[in-house]
Amino acid sequence: KSFPEKDLLHCPSKDAVEAHFMSCVKEADALKHKSQVINEMQKKDHKQLWMGLQNDRFDQFWAINRKLMEYPAEENGFRYIPFRIYQTTTERPFIQKLFRPVAADGQLHTLGDLLKEVCPSALAPEDGEKKNQVMIHGIEPMLETPLQWLSEHLSYPDNFLHISIIPQPTD
């Protein structure tokens, strides 16, 4: 009754929510591991991942999700970082592009590097005042934080790093 159809995606059933969640997890794994991890899992692993999330069973969820967060020791991180940037000031629902966690010279990319390339308007000019806050899980991480670390530790259950750009509060 009075569901805000213009603002929220209306899912007709739990099965639709599960399908959307698994689709996001698969997309994130395609970016991180070329889908190798999710494809090696069995259907029961997919179900355990979903049931652990649905039933607030941290141990059940992480027994499977841990595999999606690993990468070979000889690599410095994931192939690409699964992220979405949300802004209140644009009509686009989100920004999502391919972005590697490690630069060609071997240096780890930071949150600031990502924003500089993908959303430069979110950053304060060097001589100007800060107009936006960059938020992940309700906190404002330092722009010098390595993107790989953020992806491993602050990704949402769908394995994406959801970054919100909000106007700086005036109070």
Automatic annotation (TrEMBL):
What is annotated about its quaternary structure and interactions? Conjugated with ATG12.
What's the protein name?
Autophagy protein 5
Q: Where in the cell is it found?
A: Cytoplasm; Preautophagosomal structure membrane
What molecular functions are annotated in GO for this chain?
Atg8-family ligase activity
Lineage summary:
Eukaryota, Metazoa, Chordata, Craniata, Vertebrata
Task: Outline what the protein does.
Answer: Involved in autophagic vesicle formation.
According to the entry, every stretch annotated as the Autophagy protein ATG5 UblB domain falls at 80-165
PANTHER family in the record, alphabetically? AUTOPHAGY PROTEIN 5
Q: Which UniProt keywords apply?
A: Autophagy, Cytoplasm, Isopeptide bond, Membrane, Ubl conjugation
- One Pfam family of this chain: ATG5_UblB
Sorted alphabetically, the Gene Ontology BP terms of this entry are: autophagy of mitochondrion; cellular response to nitrogen starvation; piecemeal microautophagy of the nucleus; vacuole organization
Q: How does it sit in the membrane?
A: Peripheral membrane protein
The Autophagy protein ATG5 alpha-helical bundle region domain is annotated at 14-70
Give the protein family. Answer: Belongs to the ATG5 family.
Keyword Ubl conjugation tagged: yes
Gene Ontology cellular-component terms listed: Atg12-Atg5-Atg16 complex; autophagosome; mitochondria-associated endoplasmic reticulum membrane contact site; phagophore; phagophore assembly site membrane
